Amino acid sequence: MASATEFSTLRTEIAGVPVIELAREFGTPAYIYDAGKIVERIQDLSMFETVRFAQKACSNIAILDLMRRHGVLVDAVSAGEIERAIAAGYATEGDPPPIVYTADIFDRESLEAVLRYGLHVNCGSPDMIDQYGERAPGGNITLRINPGFGHGHSQKTNTGGEHSKHGIWHEDLHDALRRADRHGLGVTGLHLHIGSGTDIEHLAQVCGASERLAREIGRTLTTISAGGGLPTPYRPGDTHADLTAYHRLWDDTRNRLADTFGHAVHLELEPGRYLVAESGYLLAEVRAVKQMGSNTFYVVDAGFNNLARPILYGAYHPISIAPASGKMESRAEQDVVVGGPLCESGDIFTQQDGGFVCKRSLPMAQIGDYLVIECAGAYGAVMGSNYNSKPLAAEVLIENGRPHLVRRRQTPQEVMQGEMIPAR
After folding, report:
1. CA triple 273-84-136, angle to 5 deg
2. DSSP class of residue 250?
3. Residue 236 to residue 233: CA distance in whole angstroms
4. Which one from 207, 343, 358, 375 is the annotated catalytic residue?
5. What whole-number distance in Å separates Cα of residue 331 and Cα of residue 337?
6. In whole angstroms, what separates CA 44 from the centre of its chain?
7. Is 251 helix (H, G, I), strand (E, B) or coil?
8. Distance (Å, rounded) from C-alpha 20 to C-alpha 29?
9. Is 303 exposed, middle or buried (0-12, 13-18, 19+ CB in 10 A)?
């Protein structure tokens, strides 16, 4: 049984580097990534033949390069993510494919990129089969099937069932196979994904659905993907999943299918958040401590333009205070609300789903102290925006004890780049 996770509300370093040094060198707000934690999570999944990173979780090319160097393949959901993967050193050909395009549609740019680079496609809509088959008949494809049920840490991250747009509806499988036949496409892969941040019990249900659907597809199938959605600990007491038991479920499924088909069946896993969430820290500076009736607010220089998960999902993130002195000072704790600088009432990091503001017990802070929002490596920087004309935050990767700037902070001029006043 995995041990319960503990989080401290005071910290002085990240991955061995003093917080005050990171703030002085790179400024705030800044995303800090611990490469060692990413490698640790990759190693957790070593029993799976192929680990394919869902790069939408954290797509900085330095992170993708780290994944590639440790044997992780990559998934792309847009033309931009295809170009990112290639810029990070991924090849376009190989067995298994180093890059797989997975989406519910082809926009025109993505279809052209897939064809230009000869990428394998995971089709999430019947129309994709026709659009790809008309341009590249005779190839092989994967089908992403919606099994009719889903689960996630929020309804907004549930990717299965009839209220989800994702995948080909399970009852339409035979129509999808007929479309593939029309274009001479071989269905060699099956992919199911029911949601992000779900639990192992729900993920295990996918095994049965996958086996049933695989048998309907038949012996052209050479690969099954367990999708992603592995749970990540965010709250004190959360535990990591029993990955050995989870792999055993899928391995048994794969072996039964191999016996039925008379050939080996390759097993893939497609994690996103699991690989990067715990590695990431959003470093901010406390710029105001103010009393609003019965509530004490810590207002910092990072907002939902930097980390949108709390306002989108009511997501919980561990939070710690890093004293400006750089020393592990003994400080009393108080219940506080943590907010950002944006001109929006919803710019609150301590809120529940539905926008309900809640308090967090944190050490007493002063102006100039630093506040660290933890487990922020997934769906953090990638969802950043320029709202209120704020620049995108710097990103820093700490590897082997050394911090490397992997994305510099935007300048005001770069925020406005591409805008123009019409000539009159």
Report:
1. 105
2. H
3. 8
4. 343
5. 17
6. 17
7. helix
8. 13
9. buried
Identity at 217, one-letter amino acid code: I
| pLDDT (mean) for 165-181 | 93
Residue 297 predicted with pLDDT over 60: yes
Report the percent of the chain where pLDDT is more than 90: 83
Q: Provide the pLDDT for residue 160.
A: 52
pLDDT number for residue 412 = 97
DSSP-assigned letters across all residues of 42-90: HHHTTTSSEEEEEGGG---HHHHHHHHHTT-EEEESSHHHHHHHHHTT-
DSSP-based three-state secondary structure for 189: strand
Extract the tokens encoding 77. Answer: 């959901």
Determine contact, residues 358/400, Cβ cutoff 8 Å: no
pLDDT tens digit sequence for 58-108: 999 999 999 999 999 999 999 999 999 999 999 999 999 999 999 999 999
Query: Per-residue confidence at 317, pLDDT binned at 50, 70, 90?
Result: very high
Q: Which residue type sits at 203?
A: L
> Rounded to whole angstroms, how far apart are CA atoms 122 and 404?
34
The secondary structure of 193-242 as a DSSP string is --BSS--HHHHHHHHHHHHHHHHHH-TT--EEE---------STT-----
Mean confidence (pLDDT) of the chain: 93
**In this predicted structure, what is the pLDDT of residue 279?**
98
Q: How far is CA 304 from CA 20, 347, 351, 373, in A?
A: 23, 6, 12, 12
Active site includes 375?
Answer: no
User: Sorting pLDDT into bands at 50, 70 and 90, what band is 354?
Assistant: confident
Contact 16, 402 (CB under 8 A): no
Helix (H) or strand (E) holding 109: helix 108-117
Measured CA to CA, the distance from residue 404 to residue 408 in angstroms comes to 10
- For tokens 């840490």, name the residue: 153
| Rounded CA separation 358/235 (Å) | 15
| DSSP state string for 303-340 | -TTT--HHHHH-----EEEE-TT-S-----EEEEEEE-
pLDDT in tens, 133-164: 999 999 999 999 988 765 444 344 444 557 77
DSSP secondary structure code for residue 243 in this structure: H
| pLDDT, tens digit (0-9, with 9 covering 90-100), for 266-293 | 999 999 999 999 999 999 999 999 999 9
> What is the pLDDT, as a whole number, of residue 198?
55
Say which amino acid occupies 12: T
